[in-house]
Design goal:
369 residues, alpha+beta, Rossmann fold, 2 domains, 3-stranded antiparallel β-sheet, 10 helices, 25% strand, binds zinc ion
Length: 369
């Protein structure tokens, strides 16, 4: 194994340290986003100078500092990964990198944030913590790492009895086995969709939605009888790009302008002109902008058909507009009737699914759903 390591072009520090760690020694990869190596050394020294390093060793783990790429490359050498950063923003790219690679998608991950800052909305949103297995926040001195480290060891321990996945399996089968293994190692009875405005599905199936939409794999597992699905919601999907983040609103039926308002429309009986009341205003009175006659008595000269939708774009007034969606992903504007509906499911693992995760054998013939 050591000779194997020498063939890989890793930074010498990792090489030295990995070479110095016995093959079977349970190792915790410590990954930070810090750009310069002196910044990285400061961060790591500060975090591991205190009692924390002792707690890590109490849980039988040897900490080893490396980059996210190195953690992926040498994934089988690490029992767990700890991400250290100042804020959520700093560690999110690391979470994304590690959870989007099949080598580390199942590795127990602990995120340690030295400053407890709220994530900005446009990143992974508040749901980011579902992509890791534990979070420590705030001053290192305040961390209570015991339960988090214990959880990492438990997940790791559940992983070992599982049979290795056959390299000759098709890519899709290997992805599907990883989903079942995630559920078994995390002791999840169901993979639940969680509302997520940052996800194209509007729901996320952490951590399998970082690379692509995992529902094809989940539905394939359902056809094989390894998962059982239950509808929990329905979303509308863009007919152009399938994104579920659509903004529905009433627009002008004639020109599809969104500059419409309902209510204060005036209808002048004498000439039949219909327009927003603002166009009739002259001082305290009303004058028809079309025929220039003054309007005096409501019900005699004019009416206010409050139910009309008036378009400021083309001047069209009608009882009803039309409902159009704006796709927030691709910008398409399909009519509501052209939007496809799609069910959102939660997926329960069956006893056959648990067995498949353990044995790494997939049933050959799909059973009836
Ligand atoms: Zn008029
Ligand atoms: Zn219009
Ligand atoms: Zn779209």
């Amino acid at each position: 194994m050591v000779s194997d390591l020498t063939q890989i072009d890793l930074p010498s520090r990792l090489f030295d340290e990995l070479a110095g760690v016995a093959e079977g020694e349970p190792t915790l990869a410590v990954v930070t986003q810090a750009s310069s190596s002196s910044q990285k050394n400061d961060l790591v020294t500060e975090v591991f100078a205190g009692p924390f390093a002792g707690r890590v060793r109490e849980h039988g783990l040897t900490p080893l500092f490396c980059s996210a790429d190195e953690a992926v490359l040498r994934a089988t050498r690490f029992r767990a990964i700890m991400l250290v950063g100042e804020t959520v923003e700093e560690i999110l790219p690391l979470v994304t990198r590690l959870r989007s690679d099949s080598a580390t998608v199942l590795t127990p991950i602990l995120a340690a944030l030295r400053r407890a800052a709220k994530p900005t909305y446009r990143l992974l949103s508040a749901g980011w913590s579902r992509y890791v297995d534990g979070v420590l926040e705030g001053e290192e001195a305040m961390w209570q790492p015991g339960p988090a480290l214990q959880r990492l060891r438990q997940i790791d321990a559940r992983q070992w009895p599982l049979q290795p996945i056959d390299d000759r399996f098709p890519e899709a089968s290997r992805r599907q086995l990883l989903i079942l293994r995630w559920m078994v190692t995390r002791e999840l009875d169901a993979l639940e969709p969680v509302r997520d405005p940052a996800s194209p599905l509007a729901f996320s199936y952490a951590p399998f939605d970082l690379v692509s939409d995992p529902t094809a794999d989940l539905d394939a597992l359902t056809r094989l009888g390894l998962l059982k699905r239950v509808v929990v919601d329905r979303v509308c999907a863009c007919p152009s790009c399938d994104d579920a983040r659509l903004l529905f609103r009433e627009v002008c039926a004639a020109c599809r302008s969104t500059d419409v308002r309902r209510g204060d429309v005036v209808h002048h009986y004498a000439c039949g002109h219909v327009q927003s009341e603002a166009f009739f205003r002259r001082g305290n009175g009303l004058v028809c902008p079309s025929c220039a006659q003054p309007l005096r008595h409501v019900g005699i000269d004019y009416e206010r058909p409050a139910t009309l939708l008036y378009c400021n774009g083309c001047g069209h007034a009608a009882a009803e507009g039309t409902t159009e969606a704006r796709c927030l992903a691709c910008g398409a504007t399909p009519l509501a009737g052209d939007v496809r509906e799609r069910s959102i499911h939660k997926y329960l693992i069956t006893s056959e699914g648990t067995e498949a995760a353990r044995s790494s054998l997939m049933p050959a013939t799909p059973s009836e759903v």
